[in-house]
Amino acid sequence: MMNTTTNSILNVYDLFNLMADNEIILIYQGLFDQQMIKTVMSMTEMKLDKENVGESTKKKVFNIMIEGLQNICKHQFNDSTIYQNPLLVISKDKENYNVITGNVISNEKINIVKNKIDHINTLSKEELKEFYKTSRLNSVISDVGGAGLGFIDMARKSENKLDYKFYEIDTAHSSFILHTKISNK
Amino acid sequence: MNIDLTKIIYDKMVSHRFVVSIMGFFDQQDLLLSLINLTDKKLTGLDVQSSIKRKIFHFMVECSQNLLKVDKNNDFSHNNIFLIGQEGDNYTVYLGSNVSKANLIPILETIEKVNTIEAIDIKKTYYEELAATEIVNQNILLLSMLSISKKLKQKIDYELIDINEHNCFLSFKMTMTN
């Protein structure tokens, strides 16, 4: 629980510092809807334009953001018992731009997601392309509106392995953090 | 940046029970509208009274316009922070930004001026200031600070943290009880 001592302006400044030290372009934590997606995309675009990022890198960052945000929109919990809103972080380091999403996931879905990403991470570029095609042809729209192509697309667009972790919140829920790197060539 | 660092940030936000938080480049017109819409949705879900919501939105609009306008040309100023935290029935709103020290004095003088006015006189001073001058000559910052103080019935709560010889972190804060 927050209290007035720990949540002083100084702590806000800690977050500000964390952001500056790690070259974080954007952090948004809250509920997502289409309007907010449009807004964070536009904020990111302005920042990338300011840094003269190449069109190809920019396009990849946007594509991956869209996939990540669509996943969040589909799966976000609006449940007052889970005090954890979805998170989006865009940052950069020497060689990469990083698109990081965080959201709550049911523990029972962890293995499905984990197996899917682990499998994608074993595939080469050509194999990914093929897997995308066959997955699209065989896809079934799930009850949350996805055909499961998002992770494949993120791996293809980023040309990097998808990094992820699950952190248990309680016996039924975990935080799922997905980190996608886009080389800044 | 690695996943564990993201987890640290996430944990900080969750432990502070931030209802909404955004940090980044705020300098665009539709961001405030989106933030207000989302904050509205979130606060409605938490059964926050409409009068409290209106005060939060008023604070967001006034503070952000001031913070963002004052330092438009400072490259370092593009990291801005907007947060709403919850503790029981209390909601605390923070809006912070990097401000160049060169632009700081008029802001601080205005805040101090408003904070020395007795609560009972705030409304009167606001309307006097509004009526006294032509629109083009109005002290927008003063009007804005008076407006916040009038609406919230609070002194302007702010904090200044030194970053380096040229910049500091200026943050406004307000707490409302639902």
Oligomer: heterodimer
Q: Structural class of the secondary elements of chain B?
A: alpha+beta
What is the H-and-E element order of chain A?
Answer: HEHHEEHHHEE
Largest sheet of chain B, if any? 5 strands, antiparallel
Unreliable residue runs of chain B:
none
**Which stretches of chain A are poorly predicted, pLDDT < 50 over at least 5 residues?**
1-7
Distance between the termini of chain B: 38 Å
Shape of chain A: globular
Question: Structural class of chain A, please?
Answer: alpha+beta
User: What does the average pLDDT of chain B come to?
Assistant: 80
Query: What percentage of residues of chain B falls in helices of 4 or more residues?
Result: 40-55%
Mean pLDDT of chain A: 82
Assign a percent range to the helix content of chain A: 40-55%
- For the largest interface in this structure, which chains are involved and how many residues does each contribute? A-B, 58 and 55 residues
Task: Please give the order of strands in the largest beta sheet of chain A.
Answer: 1-2-3-5-4
Instruction: Report the total helices of chain B.
Output: 6
- Beta content of chain A comes to 15-25%
* DSSP strand content of chain B: 15-25%
Q: Which of globular, elongated, flat, extended, rod-shaped describes the shape of chain B?
A: globular
Distance between the termini of chain A: 43 Å
Integer-rounded radius of gyration of chain B: 17 Å
What report would you give on this structure?
The complex is a heterodimer of chains A (185) and B (178). Chain A is built from six helices and five strands; from the N terminus they run αβααββαααββ. Chain A has helices at 9-21, 34-50, 55-75, 110-122, 125-138, 150-158, and strands at residues 24-29, 87-92, 96-106, 163-168, 173-183. Chain A has a five-stranded antiparallel sheet with strand order 1-2-3-5-4, with helices on both faces. Chain B has 178 residues and is α+β, with helices and mostly antiparallel strands. Chain B is 51% helix and 24% strand. Chain B contains six helices and five strands. In chain B, α2 (29-45) runs antiparallel to α3, α3 runs antiparallel to α6 and α5 (119-132) runs antiparallel to α6. Chains A and B meet through α1, β1, α2, β2 and β3 of A and α1, β1, α2, β2 and β3 of B.
